[in-house]
Write a structure and sequence with these properties.
- The protein is α+β, with helices and mostly antiparallel strands.
- It folds into 2 domains: 1-43, Signal recognition particle alu RNA binding heterodimer, srp9/1 (2-Layer Sandwich); 56-106, 2,3-Dihydroxybiphenyl 1,2-Dioxygenase, domain 1.
- 21% of the residues lie in helices and 35% in strands.
- It is built from 2 helices and 8 strands; from the N terminus they run αββββαββββ.
- Strands 4, 5, 6, 7 and 8 form a 5-stranded mixed sheet that branches. A 3-stranded antiparallel sheet has the order 1-2-3.
- Strand 7 (88-94) and strand 8 (100-105) form a beta hairpin.
- It starts with a helix and ends with a strand.
- It comes from Polycladomyces abyssicola.
Length: 106
Amino acid sequence: MNDYRKAQQWYQEKLGLTSTFDENEKYVVLDLAGTSLTLHELSDQENKVGKEWSSTYPILYTNEIEQAHQYLGEQQVEVEPIQEAGNVRFFGFYDLDANRLEVCCY
């Protein structure tokens, strides 16, 4: 993350996540339905990956993919179109630092 405090606010506002660890050490841990999501501020020597499909990214599950897609779009989040692959429907979206996340339904 370029600024972990701004990222923390984005994840709390857009996805409703809450902080489980926040010691002001340039990172914060958020609760993602019982799983930890750590936001780490990059140092000057680190590079971010960006919108690369080859990078690792969280995949969030929902039973209501259309509603999730619409909600994120209404929150001014950059979302990709919903896609289908067999019995799986999914879409990607990006946080304020262009880190990719995905929502799926199967």
